[in-house]
């Protein structure tokens, strides 16, 4: 009879420890999921395998005036109409460069003009549940 009681006590103790370790495992998994679930920043826009600000020759945080001035300066040098007299190969090369410059300028303009993203909305507070009075 005593062995039966000891066996039941050991079994209950094992279940209790196993239940605690399962709760800890769930908490640990939840913490790991929070670390992994952070959103990654969006990848930079690439133009011909290069970032837009590199093509325009400006800093990443350049103002719209700096971006516009760099774009106009580069387009003045690489516009297809300026090299029309040089022949077909040079004109095609200038057209490709002008397309890359246009795309890089549009990307940089949209990044500079884009309004800052709004802060995340606050989470609603959980309603506290009042205990119901016991009636006898």
Structural summary, described in words:
The protein is an all-alpha fold and 136 residues long. The chain folds into two domains: 1-37; 46-113, DnaJ domain (Helix Hairpins), CATH 1.10.287. The chain is built from four helices and two strands, in the order H-E-E-H-H-H. It has a two-stranded antiparallel sheet with strand order 1-2. Helix 3 runs antiparallel to helix 4 (88-113). The model has no long low-confidence stretch (mean pLDDT 77).
- Mind telling me the CATH class of the largest domain? Mainly Alpha
CATH topology of the largest domain: Helix Hairpins
| DSSP summary, beta strand count | 2
Determine the mean pLDDT.
Answer: 77
Distance between the termini: 40 Å
CATH H-level homologous superfamily name of the largest domain: DnaJ domain
Biggest sheet, spatial arrangement of strands: 1-2
Radius of gyration: 33 Å
- CATH architecture identity of the largest domain: Orthogonal Bundle
Spell out the blueprint of helices and strands.
Layout: H1 2-36, E1 46-47, E2 50-51, H2 52-56, H3 64-78, H4 88-113
Antiparallel strand pairs: 1-2
Task: Give the key terms.
136 residues, mainly alpha, Helix Hairpins, 4 helices, 60% helix
What can be said about this structure in brief?
With 136 residues, the chain is mostly helical. The chain is built from 4 helices and 2 strands; from the N terminus they run αββααα.
């Amino acid at each position: 009879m005593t062995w039966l009681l000891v066996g039941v006590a050991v079994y209950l103790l094992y279940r209790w420890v196993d239940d605690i370790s399962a709760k800890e495992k769930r908490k640990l998994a939840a913490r790991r999921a929070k670390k992994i679930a952070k959103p990654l920043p969006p990848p930079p826009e690439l133009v011909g395998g290069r970032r837009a600000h590199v093509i325009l020759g400006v800093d990443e945080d350049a103002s719209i005036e700096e971006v516009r001035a760099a774009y106009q300066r580069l387009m003045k040098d690489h516009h297809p109409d300026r090299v029309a007299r040089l022949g077909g190969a040079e004109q095609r090369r200038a057209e490709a460069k002008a397309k890359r410059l246009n795309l890089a300028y549009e990307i940089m303009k949209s990044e500079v003009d884009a309004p800052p993203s709004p802060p995340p909305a606050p989470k609603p507070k959980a309603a506290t549940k009042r205990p119901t009075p016991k009636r006898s």
